[in-house]
Amino acid sequence: MDLPGGISVRLSGTSLAERPDLGGVVAEDIVEQFSSLGGYITGEIQLRVVTSGSTQEPHLSFRIARLTRTTIRRVTWTISADLSSLDADFRLDGLGAIGPRFATRVDRVSSPVAAVDVTFDFTSPLTPRRASRFIFLTSREVGWDRSGRIRIEGDAIDGREWAAEIPAFGFVRRATTPTFGRPSQARGLPLAVEALCMIDDDTIALFGRRAPVAEDIQLEVVSFRDRSSPIGHVTIPNTADRMIIGACEERGFVHLALQHVANSPRLLQYRDVEVITFEARHHESKPIGAVTIPMDGDKAFSAAIAGGYLCVTRVGGRALGYVDISDPSNPTKRTGTLRSAVLANTGGWMAGTGSTLFVVGRGEFIDRTGAREMDAPFVKVINIDGSPPTLRLLSTTRIRDAGSVIAAEGDVAAVLHPGGGATITLLRQAVGNWVQNGVLEALAEAAAIAFVPGASLLVVLSIYEPRVELWELTSSGANRIDSVDYVLDREAYSTNPPPSLIVGGGTASFIIGHALYTVALRDLPLTPSFPSNPPPLPPLQPR
What is the DSSP string of 432-460? Predict the structure, then answer.
């Protein structure tokens, strides 16, 4: 009997003759004892898994028997999974005498972990003399594990209400291998894109100019559904002589870092960095304030968010500029400069996750044996927190190239060493430290990387071979699981700005030269891993 959410369905029972798909191989069959009221109430529950011989779908079932001093009126089965289909009924053939008359499904999608509660009500209660029939659940496109729980509610013969909970079988979605769709280039955009960042699962912010020449910077808010027709637009005045350092999003606010560059007869003069904040929610975009970070003539290189701060690296690694964005809606934000030995010889590409910054640099490197290497490329992992912010060095890892690009997500980071025979160094957090977790042989001339949010997946972009690759991270490294070629727009191709890649909303978006490309990611996992703590069961319900 198909069981939709939110309503009670009357059950009439079924048999193998009516449903041949119920026949198959018994994969699990266990018997558990339960008790309540200090052992005054006892009983037995039999849990069974049958793999259908015709559909290969698992049928999960239970029956209750050997009761003492009680009757049972309600049983709730909790499945810690998001299920689109669910079938419930009881077997008329086989052991037992009583089946439930009603089944009610409640989907708890707003819980910390998605779950389904199926409650079976017995209008004719189970008694010590009358055991239940096998009651079963079936769902399509799922596997099974032991993550479920069953709650039994009844009345003792002395009038007391009781409940008992028993670990049970549950459903899990079958693992599917994520793959790419067909890449495409966004045509008809009204600007040459220089930077991009996610706003939400459906929308991205694009920064650029009407043409790749000196004129004011534009912000275009574009939906994945129609990339050629912006749904929001802002012109940022007096920015013709500004260079985009980076665009970062947090909590629905986009922060754009720009550096004023002045031409002189002999060389470029780098001035302060301006950070403009935009509220870019609900397909709208409006600037809500701008602040300035002093740079003391240094060239800004990259920007990232960590610990509630937007940070900007300086070429030469003498200091780190920051803006406090802990309250992004406040147009007046505190800015400053951090000067610390922790930053020595840094100043390259940077990434952030949580309160952790990853900064590339070059200089003296001392390995675990005490051996020194001069002018070595490395990545420093730095904790930033507090108010005003303080820096604490967590680890330093030797890498191949100081021009490396970094991406970070949760407790893992990836450092791409571009150029011919590009490689990727993986870093993982372990016991409060960050350690190397493998080296991947990436595509030749790989140019950008990005993690898939909420999943152990890494996207790698190559230009020399116009291709995008998808890697699945493991405890010991990563495996390449898919790749797809795209058509490079040679007319728009340029190495300035550097290639950029973001992933979100089931789509990878990247810019090469001033052209925007997108490719869909299919069959992504719903959650990064199966929950270790199932959601709590509903409270005891009154009769």
Answer: TEEEEEEEEE--TTEEEEEEPTTSSEEEE
